[in-house]
Here is the input.
Amino acid sequence: MTQIDYSQKIPNNVDLSSDKRLQRALEKWQPNYIDWWKSVGPTDFNENEVYLRTAVSVDRDGWAHFGYVKMPEYRWGIFLTPREGEKKIGFGDHMGEDAWEQVPGEYRNWLRRLIVTQGDTEPASVEQQRLLGHTAPSLYDMRNLFQVNVEEGRHLWAMVYLLHSYFGRDGREEADELLERRSGNPDHPRILTTFNEPCEDWLSFFCFTMFTDRDGKYQLLSLAESGFDPLARTCQFMLTEEAHHMFVGQTGVARTIQRTCELLNEHDGKDVREYGAIPLELIQRYVNFWSSSSYDLFGAEVSSNSANFFRAGLKGRAYEEKQGDHRALDQVFDMEMWDDGKLTKEEVPLRNAMNEVLREQYLEDCLKGVEYWNRVCERAGIDFRFTLPHRRFHRQIGMYSQGFFDPAGNPIDEATYEARKADWLPSAEDRAYVQSLMKPERRPGHFASWIAPPAKGINGQPVELEYVKLARN
Amino acid sequence: MSTTAALPDAPARFSLETHPDRYRHWQLSIEGDVATLRMNVDPEGGQRGDDYELKLNSYDIGVDVELADAVQRLRFEHPEVRCVVLTGALDRVFCAGANIVMLRTSTHAFKVNFCKYTNETRLGIEDASASSGLRFLAALNGTASGGGYELALACDRILLVDDRNSAVSFPEVPLLGVLPGTGGLTRITDKRRIRRDRCDAFSTLAEGVKGKRAVEWNLVDALAPLSRWDEEVGRLARELADEAPARGDRGVELPALEVAEEGDTLRYAHVELTVKRDERVAELTITAPEGAPATAEDAFAQGASWWALRAFRELDDALLRLRLFEPEVGLVLVRARGSAESVETTDALLAESDHWFVREVRHLVKRTLKRLEVTSKSFYAVVDEGTSFVGTFLELALACDRTYVLADDAVPVELGLTGVHDGVYPMANGLTRLRTRFLGTPEAADAVLARSGRLTATEVDELGLATVAADEIDWEDELRLAIEERASFSPDGLTGMEANLRFPGPETMETKIFGRLSAWQNWIFQRPNAVGERGALQCYGTPQSPEFDVRRT
Here is the structure.
């Protein structure tokens, strides 16, 4: 095996060049990772130069280093947000004790499970999105897709770093398996259902980065509170990158809306399909589908796992420091229970309701994005307003999955649900129509018929920049 | 701590009988010689109503009653079936084991009886394989944890889905502070013969072991990917079915037992159970009818109404009711009555016949006798006026803790030997009741076996088969004192003592499960580290973390 210059090849702030154990683990894993990227990543664009952001250090300037790079040569690094002073555990039964620098034995399995579940979503989304490059509505969007992809790849590296450094042999095995499961594969699917859903068109991709990556943000926020300090610091750094993914989603949907609004104004409210744009009602149905599918990712409303993770100090709430009592031991959560076809209020121990607490924080955040879209309509003088479906709508996990609800969360019977379903969720025709629009636009500065250009380019560059160099070198 | 615990209210009764048409938790389907039992537990179908939700295919006694019923029916009603596939109907989860909330909110006595019953069901699966050649394939289509994996361990072969996620696990010690109480620990060491250090690691790893390592450690026999799952299950089921010939082609339907409740008496066709609450004593009587079929064909023609099958199904039901619904009954007086000739005729069949149906009945009698021997009540066989302890009924007497024989020429009792004493009804320890009784004096067992036919009370006493033989003048007092004395002892002391004394001699997996594991499990279940306010079982699923008393006992 050739000697690797680790600081060059793998930018890091974890002292990789002197950590023999980590080097040895990564030496085995890294070639498999590259193989994985080349076989199920954005395969057909491996030879193209892409204008990408690379994190080369955690400094103000270092985390966003821009330049052209071929994706397989992307320098996937390992970064932890530097520690400030002495870290204490901020919640749960161990509150006030020193944060753990090593994995506490009693929580080893839980922690590994948390890390593996989080880690599994990162490569999954790359797999889900692997063919989208072919139908990108512009080079600008194509570049954003690849940026998201390489950063998901880096986030996988971050989780693998934790597995390799802190979990010994079974950590290495789990790291290997992160590359063996495949999104949508019937034999070894990704762990969470949403990450096995195909992401076949760009509206889905924008909705995915808006809603599903936002789940990721909230999971990372809650893990960034962890009493296991290396996990907390890893997640804190991942959050700086995750923000871009949500930017891609939120502005992508907004630009789609904007284009439709422009055409509605130009053609006096005629069916925008005639001009190759996406009707607002159809966009709303996509929003309904992807948001509700992402609600599921937070898990059951009442959960003993969530109570365990919180009391153990492994997974807190988002922005734990802003919460009230950090022990959350004697408090209750007023939960709307779905029981025997009725909604009833019930007090649930707060620790067991942590999934719901996090989902609530997430919903508030989503709502801001929806308001942003409505301002696009408002500015265009179009009186359509987008809504976020209720948390009870179209659930597959948790107690609400047992009933039928309209997007406002009102219980309805199955017949009504089935009759109205096509108004609320994308139909086969909707998907086919969106698919029919997925024609690549590869001229710099040009955009597909269904989407407006962005307000500005990446990193102060013009919108017309050739963000992906498609002519082979 | 208070010294006088309040006596528990009488436990709610429920039926121990069911039928596939009424199953709430299993789907039984049969295709040719392969049956499939698909576990699909109704979360709202808990035996105690709304007290707990049976999520993720977790089970309570109601679920296990259906499983036991299915296994029994497959043996009797479907002799054409050679392999049973046990699988799950849920996505990604095979079975999550016994329901924790149910356990936490049950009385200690119920938990013990629940464990016992579920163990008997699993041993029943193993008996069906060993005695009837009915092979079981556990097709684990998702994670099998705790009791879910223990159920798999009872099968002949275990196939686990290889989806990089599904595992087999014993999370009891790390998560709940208790043991895999349905024979789990014993089966991984003694049945699958897994290295003890690996068993140790496995049993402390809450998330379990999956994939190749599960095969390497022999926790499962094989893996199959989802895309080839049905094919592989079918192939293995075929392979297992081909191991043993079909037993018959036409089965014997098991109708519901007819039982009349009159006050404190349960009256079946051949069995009667009377509870005397004031004395905490139950009288259990089994009666042989006049006349019985002498050939296997005639017995088969009678089917479920053949008295031997009917009487022991009834006895089994009565024993379970005693265990579950009569916690305060401490002593059971067992009497056998009826035609000695009928028993002799029937025993000749049970001992000799190769007819599948007769063999099934023989094994059912065997299992019922075993059920009695792991029931935590004292049993006295009472050989008094009008009783008839011959052959199989004498085995029933030998299964009891003591035998009181009225030895008085003026009031003769019927006693006698048939061909069933030399291996027809082995005990859990693998020995006959005679060999177990005379463990240190095998010549005494030989002497009994050398005899045949009817015996007088005096002869029975001389052969060492009576605990106490008394004439009519002493009889009443002897028996009364023995009953009253028994009632005065600590019920716990008696339970432990009896469990120790009933299985002398060699250990088998079965004796270990009941004698060793159940005892440990039940001890742990009582301890503050499990059920105290901050015990692990108590805290599981709540916001509290457990706190242990760290002193080892």
Notes: The mean pLDDT of chain A is 92. Strands of chain A lie at 49-54, 65-70, 332-339, 342-349, 468-469. The domain at 6-469 of chain A is CATH 1.10.620.20 (Ribonucleotide Reductase, subunit A).
